[in-house]
Design goal:
With about 200 residues, the protein is an alpha/beta fold. It has helices spanning about 10-15, 25-35, 50-60, 90-100, 120-140, 160-170; strands spanning about 40-45, 65-70, 80-85, 105-110, 140-155, 170-175, 185-195. It is about 35% helix and about 25% strand.
Length: about 200
């Protein structure tokens, strides 16, 4: 069955006040794994239009903090959410997260996605490059014991990437949320738990 952009998750998002159907991906993972807790600080990469931020804000509550970062401007969302227009690949971002973004974080979420070309190999490679950047950034801004959630596509390089994640985290889970764009889609999420302390 082909992907219908106005499927039941799209319609439910409208009813529930979420900005995107993707909110239900994080909501399902949160329900199953308790990734986020009250008072947590969360970094959301590839945050536009803000669906993940909304779910994260519900989980962390008023004493928590959610920072959404995207190349596109995100219309204002209520506290505890703050948003930046920034490029995840710029070297300046790490310093800014530490000086202005309230790092370290309890969780880093990456829903970064490339502009698709329609060529599977190209799109998979671009997705993997974004995931690798998010992993590197997360290892610099997560507190020990923190959580990294990253979207990518099953394909060439997947096992190597999972092996990279195992070096930095104590446990890895592979999850395909019900709201992912089609049963036949290769989209999935890696839940990387128990961030290991960085060596000096």
């Amino acid at each position: 069955m082909s992907y219908d952009p106005r499927d039941r998750f799209f319609l439910q998002a409208k009813r529930d006040g979420f900005r995107a159907r993707s909110a239900y991906k994080l909501a399902e993972m949160q329900k199953r794994f308790r990734l986020l807790r009250a008072g947590d600080r969360v970094l959301d990469l590839g945050a536009a239009p803000g669906g993940f931020c909304q779910v994260a804000a519900q989980a962390v509550g008023p004493k928590g903090f959610v920072l959404g970062v995207d190349l596109e401007s995100i219309p204002a969302l209520p506290a505890p959410i703050e948003t930046w227009v920034a490029d995840a690949f710029t070297p300046e971002l790490l310093a800014r997260l530490r000086s202005e973004g309230r790092a370290p974080y309890d969780a880093v979420l990456s829903d970064l996605a490339p502009k698709t070309s329609g060529v599977h190999g190209v799109d998979e490679a671009r997705s993997l490059g974004l995931a690798e950047r998010a992993l590197d950034l997360s290892l610099h801004v997560l507190r020990p014991g923190g959580t990294f959630v990253v979207k990518l596509f099953m394909g060439a390089g997947f096992e190597e990437f999972r092996a990279q994640c195992r070096l930095g985290f104590g446990a890895i889970k592979v999850v395909k949320p019900e709201a992912s764009v089609a049963r036949r889609s290769k989209e999935l999420y890696l839940l990387c738990l128990e961030c290991k302390p960085r060596s000096a």
